[in-house]
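Supplementary Data S3. Sequence and structure tokens for construct A.
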Amino acid sequence: MNTLSYGLLAMLAQGPCTGYELMLQIQPVWQAKHSQIYPLLAKLEQNGFVRFVEVPQKEKPDKKVYSITERGVEALKLWLPSETSEPVKRDEMLLKTYCIWLVDPSKTERLFEERLESFGKKMSKYKSMLSELHREDDNAERLPGAGSASFGQYILLKRAIDSAQMEMDWCRWVLQLLQEQREKRAAAEAAKDAAQ
């Protein structure tokens, strides 16, 4: 099984979900699309790690609600203490940052403004998920304990929120630097024009 398979099992250990719900829940920590999740769920079901029940829907195809089996729980118990691979970071924006000096500063600023907006939307989504988690636990004042099924989800959402905040702070800092440099260039050009 691959890491995403274990991740799906880990999510299902918290409770039954549809494939779509799994895709939404995993987003704060792992990029996965429908095209990856549904074939893995089928394979997990074939191998006895999950089962599903079909829930009829009006004017839509029936949906499958998956739950973990005892065999799936045992697989997670074996996987959890095994050595974890190094985190993989692939971020096209960071590669583009090496050559931002090649383009017009207004285009560069637009890149950082778009990223700031994107992470702002992610932050809102993660905060909403955190609020929903508190509502499900029926106690927004108390943090879930380490023995709670929602503890892992809570600490991952907190990490996702902190990471989004860090990205937003970085974008604001870069935008400030770019603005300061634009103002310096404008002042230098004005001084040059005045000297002529």
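Construct B, processed identically:
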Amino acid sequence: MSIAELQVYSVEEADVTGGVCVVRCVGGVARAGQVYAAGESRITLRRIERHGRAVGSFEAGHIAKVHLAGAVVALLTRGQVLTSVPPDGHALEELEAWLATDPPLRDEPHPRTLRVLAGVRMRDERLPDGIRLRWGRIALAATHRCARAEGGPDLLRAPELASVQVYLIEQFGPARGGDPAALCRELLALMDLGPDQAAAQGRVWRDLPYHRIRHLRRIKSLIPWLVLVRPHLADADPSARAVDAWAAVRPELP
């Protein structure tokens, strides 16, 4: 894999043909000749300068002055991240093979970059359903890698994972998109309160310490995803009754 990311520090000069920027490589290896995405636009990295001389490449963690071709250079802003893209896009088979090795988190591409790339293709209705499903599985894998890389409570990361899983279920049905009941059980297991307990705390949330308010809000953020998959559950399923109970108390949560 070779996906590089550049974060813009400043735009030193720019015109309709391109410009010069100071950037930091935040992922992979930046090389002269690479093409970078800025939204729907493309920018070519023509020249790299470090310490007053031209170099062919520079790695993550280093800063350089780069000469870029493309009118959109003038619109770049401080902090914006540019992601390298091959002329024909990232190959699905290449990404699947790379993920199959369970590569270390320090290896490129960065999990969040991969999640964004896969999410865009997963939602591209011009692609055959089978291809979109494969991109969806990559988006799920990348979301799990994000959680490992960024840490934090499972409850905090759950909405990102649920958003991908729910999309696949809604678009392709439970048979191909995933198991709605398993998803509900997974999300419900993250809730350390029952609906009645959460509702009781919700009614007095202004009196609670901030960390409890934040916790209630994280629980609340999962309920819409549960509600979306509820139609795919049998009424006799215990998860269905739990989803109904949580949907009823959601208005009382902060």
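Residues 154-177 form the longest helix (24 residues). Strands lie at 5-15, 18-27, 29-31, 35-38, 41-50, 53-55, 57-59, 63-69, 81-84.
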